[in-house]
Automatic annotation (TrEMBL), chains A, B:
The keyword Ligase does not apply. SUPFAM superfamilies: alpha/beta-Hydrolases. This is Alpha/beta hydrolase. The keyword Hydrolase applies.
Length: 243, 243
């Protein structure tokens, strides 16, 4: 793990780093000493580790809950190089969409492909970050919607350190099997008028989670229109399960 | 409106009353003076105005939010006399269930019948209670699940004083038309394994609400097993919309 830069702003310390060539960012409370809960965040498709919705949530986890938050660029996103295989699949998918294939099925297949790479990357990130004095070994949470859900479901299923997860805007097509291995509390976000994920697919993914405590929050609006009050709910959810 | 008794306990003043022969109960903060938000609560089938889940919620609305709360016995429930017509329908329904008719359809029909009586009763209750010095004319909310949803949907649709409602454990069969007239914010509770209300019916009722702000919370468990943390959410919802 190599630190590239460090800045501080309004109570939040931000450290950019690379870990085995993967660019990441770690946010902690400015004066943090000792172990604390850690939330790993997975960004959306076409976005990156410092996308506005990631930043806004990370700031609140740090300032209001005292947590550490870490995010990485997903392969072929943010500061990471293109991946030839992904480009090839994307081009193929474009042709398949034009030929009438279902968008949700193609998205799911793509996310399953990327997850094979991100699960071990994210696990290595937990290993590294939890060795830092100002993060330490505390409870771990995961937050990710859309692509962050498609990659998050197999990650949460594989990683026993994760004790609670916020997921959503994703369907069961790629990840029903992994979802059945998840037993930790989950808050699951659905956009009622999601133009990318069919409602029935969202419901099927929620249904597949083996967690005894899982709660689905559905709100009107399109894929990108999660209402602001859901962030308040996310804070309370993580506060309840990670503190 | 005739007051029958008054007691106080742990910060909550409880007044039993009758209004045109209907038995009701009003809870307010012990030292309440002046206008405040008022929540009308509708109890479940076979229950009554002081059922444990009504009492527990009312206490928290009063002590944590400073609200007034009012509840009435539904016809043929609690301290109210039997209603011959309802008994007849119940007997008929028993025979129809045995003949293989769908439970949810029969429940919906019964609730629509009862709502024709309760909507005007509840409106008269708001009129009377808001004339009291320690309640006054403030924003009004409604809380009701199961039978309280079946009766609540037509009430909220008909009553412009209601500015926010918590509903749930109910389906669209009886009340889709009334739901389409509801435009205030709604928090809607679904039990994922509800043995009485088919999931698809719950979803259809949520879908039918015309509210631009509506949020569906689904949790695992049977009809009567709403998790405790949903009450915290209800408090925040009413706090956001009625204060």
């Amino acid at each position: 793990m190599r630190f590239l830069s460090e800045t501080s702003s309004v109570g939040v310390r931000e450290q950019l780093f690379t870990l085995h060539e993967i660019p990441g960012v770690l946010w902690t409370p400015e004066a943090a000493v000792g172990a604390r809960p850690l939330v790993l965040m997975g960004h959306g498709g076409g976005q990156h580790k410092k996308a506005p919705d990631i930043l806004a949530r990370a700031r609140r986890f740090v300032t209001e809950l005292g947590f550490a938050v870490v995010a990485l660029d997903v392969p072929a996103h943010g500061d990471r190089p293109k991946v030839e295989e992904y480009d090839r699949v994307a081009t193929e998918n474009q042709a398949r969409i034009e030929a009438g294939e279902e968008l949700a099925v193609l998205i799911a297949g793509f996310q399953a492909l990327v997850a094979r790479q991100t699960v071990p990357e994210w696990q290595a990130t937990l290993d590294a970050v939890q060795q830092l004095d100002h993060v330490g070994v505390g409870p771990v949470g995961y937050w990710g919607v859309s692509l962050g859900c498609g990659l998050g479901v197999p990650f949460v299923a594989a990683e026993p350190r994760v004790r609670a997860a916020v997921l959503g805007l994703g369907g069961a097509l790629a990840s029903a099997e992994a979802a059945a291995a998840i037993t930790v509390p989950v808050e699951f976000l659905v956009q009622w008028d999601d133009e990318r994920v069919p409602r029935v697919q969202s419901m099927a993914l929620f249904d597949a989670l083996a967690s005894t405590e899982k709660t689905l929050h559905a709100n009107p609006g399109k894929h990108g229109e999660i209402p602001a009050f859901e962030l308040d709910s996310t804070l309370r959810f993580f506060s309840r399960h990670l503190r």
